[in-house]
Amino acid sequence: MMCEKRLAWALAGACSLLATLPMVASAASKSLEIRRHWVQNAHALDAKEAAKLAAEVPDARSRDILAGKLEASLILRNWYPSLPQGGRWTPKGAVRAETIVLFDLGAANVRFGWWTDTDFADGRDSYVLRIWRKGSEKVVMTFKTEHPSLGNTMKGYLDNGKVAAKSGSMADIDAATLLTFDFAGRRLVIPLSEWTEGLRNAEERGWLTQAIETDSDLKASLEDIAVVANLEPELNVMCTLVIQPLLREDRYRCSPEGASFLRLARKPDCDFDSWFGETCSLEQSLEFRLRKQPVLAPPPTP
From 50, 102, 128, 216, which residue has the greatest number of CB atoms within 10 Å? Predict the structure, then answer.
C-alpha cells in the first residue's frame, strides 16, 4: 500500500505534466529542480457555495480552513549520474528524488512542510513532517522506510511498480518494509504494517497515545492539517503514514482521488519557500523579484 501510494501521483501522469514547466539545473550536484506555488485568498461564500461545502464537509472548522486563505508550494528535485540531454526533468536515469510540499493554513494559523527523499537503488525512503503553530515550530517527526528495491532509477521504480501493482505483489513489498519513527526523543523500529494497523506493544502504544493526546496544540494542528491532507493527492502518503496512525479516526480516509490544489500552482514564490528554509536559486530569485517588482527590470535596449 505504501509503495503503491508513492507511485500513484507519478503514474497518473504528473511527471509528463511537470516536465513542461520551467526548471533549474545544478551542474555541481547534477540535479534538476521544479518549483510551483499556489495561493487561494480568503473569500466569502455565497449561499449556494456554502450549502455545497456544508454538504461535503460537515465539520465547521474544516469549512473555515477550506474557505480561508490557503497557500502552498511544491518542489521536485531529481539527482542524476549526469544531467539528462537537453536538461529536461525526467524520471529516466534519476537515482534519487526529493518531493517537498509546503502549506500555510491561514484560518488555522498553522504552517507545515512534508519532505520526502527517495534513494531508488537502496530502497530507502525518508519522510519529515515539520509543523509550525502561531509562527513557532511545534514538532518534528521523522519516518524512514526500508523495502526491497523496485529499481535503480525513478524510471525503473515506476515501471516495476506498475507491474507489481497489476500482479498484486505490492502487498508483499509492503509486508517486507521496515519503519523507523523518531519523535519526542524516542525511536521506534517496527514493521510498516504494524504502524499503519496499530502498535501491538502495549507500552509503545501507551506512550504514543499519551504523546498525542496530552499535547492539545499538537493534536489540534494534526487535525487542521488533516483537512487538506485528506484532499491533496500529493499528501496522500503523509495522510496514511501520519494522520491515520496518530489520530485513529474513520473520517481520515486519505483518498488520493481529490482534485489537487497543487495542479493549479504556477511560478514559485521565493519569499514563501524561504520561510520554510527552501531557498530559491539565484536565477529563480531574480525572476521572482522582477515579477514582484517589474520596476526593477532594466529598460529595453534601444
Answer: 102
Question: Are the C-beta atoms of 255 and 167 separated by less than 8 Å?
Answer: no
pLDDT digits (tens, 9 = 90+) for 269-291: 999 999 999 999 898 888 888 88
- Per the listing, cell 450549502 goes with 51
pLDDT in tens, 168-196: 777 777 778 999 999 989 999 999 999 98
Among the listed residues 150, 148, 101, the one whose alpha carbon sits nearest the alpha carbon of residue 127: 101
Whether this model's pTM surpasses 0.90: no
Strands (DSSP E) contained in the chain are 24-26, 31-40, 70-79, 96-105, 110-119, 124-133, 136-146, 178-183, 186-191
Q: What are the b/e assignments for 175-203, b being 16+ CB within 10 Å?
A: eebebebebeeeebeeebbebeeebeeee
Number of domains in the chain: 1
Residue 302: inside a domain: no
Q: Yes or no: say if 42 and 64 are a contact pair by the CB < 8 Å rule.
A: no
Q: Checking DSSP bridges between strand 96-105 and strand 31-40, what pairing results, if any? A: unpaired
User: Quick check: is 238 in a domain?
Assistant: yes
Which cell numbers in the block locate residue 219?
493534536
Residue 96 pairs in a beta bridge with 79, 119
The parent domain of residue 24 ranges over 2-292
Task: Name the grid cell of 270.
Answer: 521565493
Q: Show Cβ contacts of residue 235 under 8 Å, excluding neighbours closer than 6 positions.
A: 101, 114, 228, 229
